[in-house]
Amino acid sequence: MDCNFFKDVLTTIERGLREGVNAELIADEFGISARHLQRLFKFVFNQPLGLYIRSRKLAASIDDLLNTDLNVLDIAMDYGFEYEQSYIRSFRREYGITPGDLRKTGQIVKITYPLQLFASNRYANELISEPDIVMVPKLHVIGKKYEIPICDNTTLVPRVINQFIINDRKHISNTIDPDLIINIATESSINSDSCFIMPSIQVKSLEDIPEGFTSYTFPSSLCVRFSFTNSDSKVLKKLPVKEMFTSIDNFMNENQKNIFERKVTIDKLRISDYGKYFKLWEWFSPVNRAAQTNTL
After folding, report:
1. Least C-beta-crowded within 10 Å: which of 251, 264, 270, 272?
2. pTM of the full structure
3. Three-state DSSP state, 143
4. Across the chain, how many H-helices and E-strands are there?
């Protein structure tokens, strides 16, 4: 079996997530036995075919959970689960939360993305974790928007964040987590040498926007996530911003498959960490879901 065979198998899985795809159907399509296909898949990808298919169905179902009003039973049936309870049990086993609770809480969950989506990557000084794919639920934020020259990004962005923390955030009410700063970065449609940066805080609604502030709604999105987590063996006084973004750019450049939209990115950090030891920093970029199947 050559590489194209396995790419075709993965593509068949992605196209059949809503059509009850399983090992037997795939094996029939390629003219081999289901048992032989399962052995080949386990040998190449080091995981059982059936578990991979189930994980991909559950991951795909999250989009319906967060972006439609379909009830859980209908979603379960759409993705080939015979009973609502079997879907709920599988969902909880995969994500540690029920489908209904995910809708209520807006929790970020790590999903199983299509195999062979990303090329291998080398990370700068092992500062950040290997990227993973997560579903980020819709969130509303209010903040201050700035246009910044890209060449001055690493020096000016910390300044505007600090300005927001000290002087601006106290004017925002109806916040969800006032200790969590969410930085929204968008491309400039006019000047390619600059970008827009908006330090912000997540709010419950956009009904009360202070004068001089800007609101933004980040839609429910499948995102690639990079994260830096502090540990006792690796204590950093501050985020080495340039090195970390160089590492992210290296990853993006190694995966030239129109996977990442990058028109809007977000990163998160805690005010209680800012200016001292960072415990967690996360950066998200939306994935072009339409490109996923084409990149296999």
Report:
1. 272
2. 0.71
3. strand
4. 10, 10
Confidence tier at 296 by pLDDT (50, 70, 90)? very low
Residue ranges of alpha helices (H) inside 46-143 are 49-67, 72-78, 84-95, 99-105
> What is the reported pLDDT for 38?
92
Count Cβ atoms within 10 A of the Cβ of residue 194 and give its class: 0-12 exposed, 13-18 middle, 19 or more buried.
Answer: middle
What is the DSSP annotation of 219-278? PPEEEEEEEEE-BTTB--SS--HHHHHHHHHHHHHH-TTT-B--SEEEEEEEGGGTTS--
152 backbone dihedrals φ, ψ, rounded to 5°: -105, 15
The DSSP H or E segment spanning 111 is strand 109-111
Q: Please, what are the domains in the chain? A: 3-105 (1.10.10.60), 124-295 (3.20.80.10)
What six digits make up the tokens of 92?
């909880």
Q: What gap in Å lies between CA 270 and CA 238, rounded to an integer? A: 13
H or E segment to which residue 285 belongs: strand 280-286
% of the chain at pLDDT higher than 90: 39
Res 262 pLDDT > 80? no
Residue 39 CB partners (closer than 8 Å, separation 6+) = none
* CA distances for 53 relative to 76, 79, 113, 295, 296, angstroms: 14, 11, 11, 18, 15
User: What angle do helix axes 23-30 and 3-15 make, rounded to 10 degrees?
Assistant: 130
Mean of per-residue pLDDT scores for the chain = 82
Give the separation between CA 184 and CA 292, rounded to whole angstroms.
Answer: 24
User: Could you tell me which of 177, 197, 173 has the C-alpha nearest to residue 185?
Assistant: 197
Q: Residue 274 is encoded by which pair of tokens?
A: 């800012």
DSSP code at position 150: G
